[in-house]
Amino acid sequence: MTLVAAIDRDPAEELVSKLCRVVAGFKLGIPLLLRYGAAYAHRLRKLCRDALWIADLKLADIGSTMVASVEPLLGAVDAFIAHAVVGVEGALDQLANTLEEHGTKLVLVVAMSHPGASSLYNKLVEDNIEVARRIRAWGVVAPATMPELVALVRSRLPEVKVFSPGVGAQGAKPGDALCAGADYEIVGRLITSSPDPLEVAKKVLAEQKKRLERCWKP
Ligand code: BMP
């Protein structure tokens, strides 16, 4: 399964129950977690235990603050997202140690999907990739809207899971990032704003499959 549903706003019990075993996992965003709290994330997880659960806190702080931020969600999720740009010493090293002690994974944002991000790139992305390599991140986030960056990240970090947001509401098509080497595409509003999220998720998966068949052909 190559689809992760991003849940950012609305109560999601029904959505999780419908999409459980259809999508690979769920990414819980800051707006949802602020509104409904950590206990809510623990409850959601129980509705679909075997999915890959990710808390997208977009951590970017000193180590001790990042560690304090993840504590309420330990056990509710399998992975946390932090920004690579904060660097290793005194920041991601402490977070990575804490997560490892709890058997929880670290996913680093190395490149973002919005239009303004592209002017920041080149050296920054290379630096972020190096941070991900040094800290042995389990996963990274790279933009479906810029498949060339997904391909760059994949070539530099062959063993790392690549998660790509930007499909649907931000303009990328299902399969764009997978064809460039991503493992998962993250889809939010296209699914969560639909009156029939299950149907849309199935359609995205079918489109991904079709596109992958074409892009891997010699
Ligand atoms: P949507 O498909 O509705 O655009 O949602 C994309 C999700 O991925 C949101 O949760 C957003 O915060 C996240 N995201 C992103 O869009 N771009 C990035 O570079 C990194 C993200 O985590």
Question: How would you characterize the overall build of this protein?
Answer:
Pathway: Pyrimidine metabolism; UMP biosynthesis via de novo pathway; UMP from orotate: step 2/2. Pfam families: OMPdecase (PF00215). The protein is built from 10 helices and 8 strands. With 218 residues, the chain is an alpha/beta fold. It has one domain: TIM Barrel, CATH 3.20.20. The chain has an 8-stranded parallel β-barrel, surrounded by 5 helices. α5 links the parallel β4 and β5. The mean pLDDT is 96. 6-hydroxyuridine-5'-phosphate binds next to β8 and α9.
Give the topology:
Elements: E1 3-7, H1 13-19, E2 25-29, H2 30-36, H3 38-47, E3 52-59, H4 63-70, E4 79-83, H5 88-101, E5 105-109, H6 123-134, E6 139-141, H7 147-156, E7 161-165, H8 176-179, E8 184-187, H9 189-192, H10 197-215
Parallel strand pairs: 1-2, 1-8, 2-3, 3-4, 4-5, 5-6, 6-7, 7-8
Helix pairs in contact: 4-5
Bound molecules: 6-hydroxyuridine-5'-phosphate.
Give a short synopsis of this structure.
Keywords: Decarboxylase, Lyase, Pyrimidine biosynthesis. It is an enzyme of class 4 (lyase). The protein is an alpha/beta fold and 218 residues long.
Write down the overall mean pLDDT: 96
Hetero groups in this structure are:
6-hydroxyuridine-5'-phosphate
What is the CATH topology descriptor?
Answer: TIM Barrel
Tertiary shape: globular
Q: CATH superfamily, please?
A: Aldolase class I
How far the N terminus sits from the C terminus, by CA atoms, comes to: 23 Å
Q: Structural class of the helices, strands and pairings?
A: alpha/beta
How many helices? The count is 10
Name of the CATH class: Alpha Beta
Please tell me the total number of domains.
1
Q: Give the beta-strand count.
A: 8
Instruction: Give a short account of the largest sheet.
Output: 8 strands, parallel, barrel
Q: Unreliable stretches, pLDDT < 50, 5 or more residues?
A: none
